[in-house]
Specification:
Blueprint: H1 44-55, H2 68-83, E1 87-88, E2 96-98, E3 103-109, E4 120-126, E5 131-133, E6 136-138, H3 141-160, E7 166-172, H4 186-192, E8 201-207, E9 222-225, E10 246-249, H5 252-255, E11 256-257, E12 260-261, H6 267-272, E13 277-281, H7 300-318, H8 334-348, H9 360-374, H10 382-399
Parallel strand pairs: 4-7, 4-8, 8-13, 9-10
Antiparallel strand pairs: 1-3, 2-3, 3-7, 5-6, 9-13, 11-12
Length: 411
């Protein structure tokens, strides 16, 4: 993902990236001996901190894909899933899938139900980051050491108590620029060359940016986006957690840019192939794609709470009696308007987000409309839906103006 902040529910997360032609560089993997890992951390909170501090350490130099730091991150993840007894799900009986630069890490928790174990729910989090730019290291603690830490904690729990379907842990490489939206992007490469039959991929739960806040003084919720892509409700009611508010958000409110629909993380390729997709994030903090994205900025209590939320969603999908099904009908609802209204109210309140002050009058009008639609009957008219999307993009643009939200999306 890319510059100051964008938001999370409105959290289009992942990078100011422009599509480009795939690289012709031959596949290669850098391997290093004796990986340092957090597999043996005594308890889960210690393990979460260990993974973030390891992956975002100066020694890994920002984990650019194809770099020695990226290889060390990958080796640590492989060592952990091997220690926990997960099955290799990469190529040639390994945990790895080579990319033009770097490699994905793929490991399977075998489902307990023989009738459903060949179906896979993908639990995805990219482990690469920007590396070193202009002699400055970009550590990537929130983007996306935080998501990897949570995914690994969930995988460890699942290994101890498998659900009915199999869960494929995918630590994707090459999510960041210049690979974003290219064929060389780790998740795109996996979908083009799946290591399990494509028909066996039934859903994805994607994690990206889980440990920050959208602006100082505001505790960003964990947004669960994409529930509308499932033909039947696959998840339990969202919990009320003291450490972490949890909210549903429609992907359209995040990704329907004036330039066209654009996903901001590894769920995008799955969405395009009509595989039901959940995207969980707390959004772009002020440290997003900055050298200041360091472990000391991470809210570890939020990560600990997120583990429970992610596990509940993965288990609910993996234990569904029937196969998860794609929903062609994905309406924006009054509940989506309520989620947007809550965020607008927080941004305009006290202390609020200072970036919104220049457009306060317009945003107050957006807030009034969102509140009115939150109590309106469903379905919402398309004109009202378009207004909600425009208000969401306006908020994103003001919080984090960059190439992803063009200037004409702002007031």
């Amino acid at each position: 993902m890319l510059r100051p902040r964008m938001l999370a529910a409105l959290a289009a997360l992942a990078a100011c990236r422009e599509p480009a032609a795939p690289t012709a560089e031959p596949p290669r993997i850098v391997t290093l001996p004796a990986p340092v890992t957090c597999a043996a951390a005594l308890d889960e909170p210690a393990a979460l901190r260990c993974w973030v501090e390891l992956l975002a350490s100066p020694e890994l130099a920002g984990r650019d894909n194809g770099s020695p730091g990226g290889a060390r991150a990958r080796a640590a993840i492989v060592e952990a899933v091997r220690a926990w007894g997960l099955d290799p799900a990469g190529e040639t009986g390994t945990f790895e899938q080579p990319l033009p630069r770097g490699a994905n890490v793929l490991a399977r928790v075998r489902g307990r139900d023989p009738a459903r174990a060949d179906e896979h729910v993908v639990l995805a989090a990219h482990y690469d980051h920007l590396g070193e730019l202009g002699g400055v290291v970009y550590p990537g603690a929130d983007d996306n050491a935080s998501g990897v830490a949570v995914a690994l904690a969930v995988a460890r729990r699942l290994a101890a108590d498998p659900p009915a379907r199999s869960v494929l842990l995918a630590a994707f490489d090459a999510e960041e620029p210049p690979d974003y939206r290219r064929a060389s992007m780790g998740s795109n490469h996996f979908l083009a060359h799946p290591t399990v039959p494509r028909a066996q991929l039934v859903a994805v739960v994607c994690l990206d940016l889980l440990g920050g806040d959208l602006w100082p003084g505001y505790r960003s919720p964990l947004y669960v986006m994409g529930r509308e892509t499932f033909a039947a409700a696959p998840v339990p009611p969202l919990p009320e957690l003291p450490a972490l508010p949890v909210r549903a958000m429609h992907l359209r409110l995040v990704e329907e840019l004036p330039t066209g629909r654009q996903a901001f993380s590894d769920h995008g390729g799955f969405f395009e192939e009509k595989i039901p997709a959940l995207f969980l994030s707390t959004g772009r903090s002020p440290h997003y794609h900055q050298p200041s994205d360091t472990p000391d900025t991470i809210r570890f209590d939020k990560l600990a709470a997120a583990v429970d939320v992610v596990e509940a969603h993965v288990r609910a999908i993996a234990d569904l009696t029937g196969r998860p099904a794609w929903s062609e009908d994905q309406p924006i609802t009054p509940a989506d308007a309520a989620a947007l209204a809550e965020l607008l109210a927080a941004g305009l309140g006290t202390p609020g987000a200072a970036e919104l002050a220049p457009a306060r009058a317009r945003l107050e009008a957006d807030l009034a409309r969102a509140r009115a639609l939150a109590s309106a009957p469903a379905p919402l008219p398309e004109a009202d839906v378009a207004a909600l999307v425009a208000g969401s993009l306006r908020l994103q643009c003001l919080l984090a103006p960059d190439a992803e939200i063009p200037p004409f999306a702002c007031p």
